[in-house]
Design brief:
Chain A is mostly helical. Chain A is built from twelve helices and no strands. The mean pLDDT of chain A is about 95. In chain B, α12 crosses α20 and α16 packs across α17. The termini of chain B are far apart. The structure holds iron/sulfur cluster (3 copies). The site of one iron/sulfur cluster (SF4) has 14 residues of chain B, from α8. One iron/sulfur cluster binds next to α6 of chain B.
């Protein structure tokens, strides 16, 4: 079972997940339409790219966009959550051991203490996301079951991973659970709203190009996102 | 009953239809008929499949339901922060549902969509700046309005508005003859005080062609006279076209895209015919947006640009002041606290934020200009944008919407508001009428004229 999950199944998962995200990115670009979107992408590519990059940077750098500055509390938790989500799995020592076995390459790894903190951050962040959905009417009204499900899919590998890590209960069971939930998460990426992993960049880029070309960029004024 | 006499899926294209619909006071019969209007689900879904591409599709799909856009919407703020005013909710509950149900929605639902699209969003595009995913509800509501219009679910005034554009190619029943006559009349009137002043109609090869808002020839012809005075004093070689002079687009508010295209093409044809070096329009935000920012796409110009460089009035004015074509007498500058309304349509939507402040630097005594908070591209809609000002059915909601601007203005402590946008100007006028906070408001033209330093040779001789 372990061999299957970390062998062929892992391969399939990576392929479907990253391949799927790539397909979504390509489909996104193909579905752009200068006349319907009312943005002359091609003839003004330079302005567009400039606006697009500014727009992406404003939202991936904490406190850069005005949105992040007007809500510092949310911003902190939001970034901590996403950084933990991305960094932990990639730089975790245990994952890198597997990587080394499979491909003979490995990335720098996090000290265990840091990895623990990051994983806990994700859990707390996830809990916070759930709580604010319940607490704030402006979030409650747009929240659906699907939103909760996605949070569950996202934090499940962290919960199972931490249980395995602290060797609470049956280690093998929790390790297996960790691998399965991790693979479910990866497989969900291209097929659910989690596709925002890639579509965030596409959408931000597009709106950035819109502003960079049509809504001020060519008049020499950058949007103060 | 499928389609009514006034409320139906067919646009108004004849003068008789137009007059008949207008005579239905307040749209009484129109809205009554709307209760029985059928939804053509197949056509609706067909239109969505043809026109809903990556951008809107992705936006609907990846909206994180995080609610961060809530506070960015002034309508959410002024309406007691009710969750029904959260931008994401407004679009998911309307367009989102239509898409989910593949167009199989009923009359009641479409009427709810109509109310949401025209009374809960002014398409000010502010929320788009605050959504981490870059989801721009203003754009999506524009799209939804198009779908609603094609199904006949559009407020009475806007059905008429786009009908006006279709019949008269102007937002009001101003014909080409009316327009040319008004120009001649204004030139005559103004010439007494400004000898040599002309309003040249259809002059080929001028440096600049001027277009305007049909409300000017209809209701405030002095605005045309003021434009003429400023061009005259600036020594500008200018002209107005006899046909293609109307720059506004109620059809854009209505979501009548076919009509939008026709109107803009009319202006571009005038440009091709008169071959001016550049063009400029009046102090109007949405007119500028229609003709200059969106227009090139409606008419299918691949570079996204009008046929010649087309300036907003504030750009022309700033240039004339900067180059000394117009000179301000420093003793006549504004010496009272004054604030500026940043129009969404050319500030957030074309970045013209610094140029208006440059004008301020010439016409306001230093120290007297007070910024609204927030300003520039973060400024709020005046409260009457996107057609909101003109829709009787939603007057109450519009009056509520004005409160944001009221608070912003009150916070500046200013009694004078400069509003270089027709629609903003109207909204601020209504705001004073409704809430009586004791403010005055003005376009730039009359302010500048009052403080001009006019060269000797342009003044009347006998004085
Ligand atoms: S801020 Fe953007 S992602 Fe969040 S709810 Fe609003 S529209 Fe959706
Ligand atoms: S476009 Fe403006 S009015 Fe419409 S939802 Fe967004 S912020 Fe509100
Ligand atoms: S009327 Fe002026 S402020 Fe209001 S939406 Fe239009 S441009 Fe913006």
């Amino acid at each position: 079972m372990y061999d299957f999950l970390t062998g062929p199944m892992l391969w399939v998962t990576f392929l479907v997940s990253f391949g799927g995200l790539l397909v979504r990115a390509v489909m996104y670009v193909r579905g752009l339409n200068w006349q319907l979107d009312r943005v002359a992408y091609r003839p003004n590519m330079k302005y567009g790219l400039r606006g697009g990059i500014i727009s992406i940077l404003a939202f991936i750098i904490p406190f850069r966009a005005r949105l992040w500055r007007v809500r510092p509390g949310f911003t902190l938790i939001f970034f901590a959550f996403h950084i933990g989500l991305l960094v932990t799995p990639i730089l975790l020592e245990a994952h890198n051991v597997m990587l080394k076995e499979a491909f003979g390459i490995s990335l720098p790894t996090l000290p265990t203490g840091v990895a623990d903190v990051l994983a806990w951050t994700c859990l707390v962040g996830g809990l916070f996301m759930v709580l604010r959905r319940i607490a704030f009417p402006e979030v409650r009204i747009i929240t659906t079951f699907y939103d909760y499900l996605l949070i569950a899919i996202t934090v499940a590998p962290f919960i199972t991973g931490l249980i395995a890590r602290y060797e609470m209960g049956d280690y093998n069971f929790w390790l297996m659970a960790h691998i399965i939930t991790g693979e479910i998460w990866l497989l969900s990426l291209p097929f659910t709203k989690l596709s925002h992993a890639i579509l965030f960049f596409m959408s931000r880029m597009q709106l950035g190009m819109d502003y960079g070309i049509k809504r001020g960029g060519m008049k020499g004024s950058d949007m103060a996102w | 009953m499928p389609e009514g006499q006034f409320c139906n899926k067919t646009p108004i294209t004849t003068d008789e239809q137009l007059k008949a619909t207008l005579n239905d006071k307040g749209g009484k019969q129109y809205y009554e008929e709307m209760n029985h209007l059928d939804v053509d689900s197949e056509k609706l879904w067909g239109a969505i499949q043809k026109t809903m591409k990556s951008r809107i599709k992705t936006w609907l799909e990846i909206c994180a339901h995080c609610g961060l856009c809530a506070e960015s919407c002034f309508l959410y703020q002024v309406n007691g922060r009710v969750p029904e005013q959260v931008p994401s909710y407004k679009i998911q509950a309307t367009l989102g549902q239509i898409v989910k149900k593949k167009g199989k929605v009923d009359n009641e639902f479409m009427q709810m969509c109509m109310e949401t699209a025209w009374s809960k969003c002014t398409c000010c595009n502010r929320c788009g700046m605050y959504c981490p995913h870059g989801i721009d509800m203003g754009i999506m509501f524009g799209y939804l309005r198009g779908l609603l219009y094609s199904q006949g679910f559009v407020p009475w005034e806007l059905k008429i508005g786009s009908g006006m554009h279709r019949v008269y190619r102007a937002q009001m029943d101003v014909t080409m003859e009316d327009w040319v006559e008004t120009c001649e009349w204004m030139a005559e009137e103004t010439e007494e005080e400004w000898p040599g002043l002309e309003i040249p109609v259809d002059k080929v090869g001028a440096d600049i062609m001027y277009t305007c808002n049909a409300r000017e020839p209809k209701h405030y012809p002095e605005d045309i006279a003021e434009a003429a005075i400023l061009f005259h004093v600036a020594g500008e070689n200018w002209t107005v076209p006899s046909e293609g002079w109307e720059q506004t687009s109620l059809s854009m508010f209505a979501g009548d895209w076919e009509c939008c295209k026709d109107n803009v093409q009319n202006v571009y044809d005038a440009i091709e015919r008169l071959k001016p070096k550049r063009a400029t329009g009046t102090e109007c935000g949405h007119a500028h947006r229609a003709t200059v920012i969106e227009g090139p796409y409606w008419t299918g110009r691949p570079d996204g640009q009008p046929p010649v460089p087309f300036l907003h009035y504030v750009e022309w004015l700033a240039e004339a002041l900067r180059t000394g074509k117009l000179k301000i007498d420093p003793s006549k500058r504004i010496k009272e606290p004054v604030t500026l309304q940043d129009s969404c349509n050319y500030v957030r939507n074309q970045g013209l934020k610094d140029i208006t402040r440059e004008i301020i630097s010439y016409i306001v005594e230093p120290g007297y200009f007070v910024e609204m908070a927030p300003t520039k591209e973060h400024n709020y809609c005046c409260g009457g944008g996107g057609g909101f000002n003109g829709i009787g059915k939603y007057r109450e909601q519009r009056n509520m919407a004005l409160r944001k601007k009221m608070d912003q203005i009150l916070d500046t402590g200013c009694k004078l508001v400069i509003a270089p946008c027709h629609n903003c100007w109207d909204a601020i006028r209504d705001l004073e009428e409704e809430y009586e906070i004791g403010i005055r408001w003005s376009f730039l033209k009359p302010l500048v004229i009052k403080m001009l330093d006019v060269p000797e040779h342009l003044l009347p001789k006998d004085e």
